[in-house]
Design goal:
Layout: H1 2-20, H2 24-43, H3 51-56, E1 59-83, E2 94-118, H4 121-125, E3 140-142, H5 150-153, E4 160-164, E5 179-182, H6 184-191, H7 197-202, H8 213-222
Parallel strand pairs: 3-4
Antiparallel strand pairs: 1-2, 2-4, 2-5
Length: 224
């Protein structure tokens, strides 16, 4: 147990250090990976997000996580978050961190790519917290895919709809996620600003960076 606890501390310190040492190239690669995750999601019939859902969405979070376990389970990752402004234009992306730690008999590893579609203003506000969980801070359920009926997409009242490539999720299934938090310093470095996450997301004070424009354009095309 002491050895496991020591390993947990080491892993936590390594995560903090790696976040502090992110270069601009690292940040750009993460944003581009999130765009690829969204494109892959939209290209898969069993996971594609219906156009009506994206049209009504207030925000989106795209997360890439790696889960490994050998007695100690670690899920560490990162992603981006964006919100839809009152003029129906999507904001610039901000960086987030995503991870959790668990103990128990386990082994193996996998990559988890997830898209969270935020369906109301309250769910977008959890992005301002220093740490948040969908399914706790905002009700989350598995979202309908594009192959399902239009009637079904209009009956959802959940705050967050979840799409993942790890396993099939069915409408109405409860979803709980690991903790996430804004990567404030990395976001500020990317945009050359001292503004906080709310101002970066909801104002027009931060200039979009060319490297983030393809993701912004693609999402805008999906939800005109």
């Amino acid at each position: 147990m002491k050895r496991s606890l020591l390993l947990a501390v080491v892993l936590s310190l390594a995560t903090v250090a790696s976040a502090a040492q992110l270069t601009r190239a690292d940040i750009v690669a993460r944003i581009q990976t999130c765009e690829a995750i969204l494109q892959e999601t939209m290209g898969a019939p069993n996971r594609a997000i219906p156009a009506d859902v994206l049209h009504r969405a207030k925000g989106i979070v795209i997360v890439n996580q790696v889960q490994v376990g050998l007695f100690l389970g670690v899920k560490d990752g990162w992603g981006v978050a964006m919100v839809k402004k009152p003029n129906n234009q999507w904001s610039v992306p901000v960086l987030i961190k995503a991870g959790e730690l668990s103990f128990g008999l386990q082994a193996g590893g996998k990559t988890v790519e997830t898209v969270y579609v935020l369906m109301d203003d309250d769910s977008t506000r959890v992005l301002f917290k220093s740490k948040f969980k969908f399914g706790v801070d905002a009700k989350a359920v598995a979202g309908p895919n594009a192959a399902e009926t239009e009637r079904m997409t209009k009956t959802f009242s959940a705050q967050v709809l979840v799409y993942t490539n790890v396993k099939g999720l069915y409408a109405g299934a409860t979803v709980k996620t690991g903790s996430m938090s804004p990567s404030v310093e990395a976001t500020r470095r990317f945009y050359y600003t001292d503004w906080g996450i709310p101002e970066i997301l909801f104002s027009d004070w931060v200039k979009p960076q060319p490297e983030a424009q393809p993701l912004m354009n693609y999402l805008q095309q999906l939800s005109p």
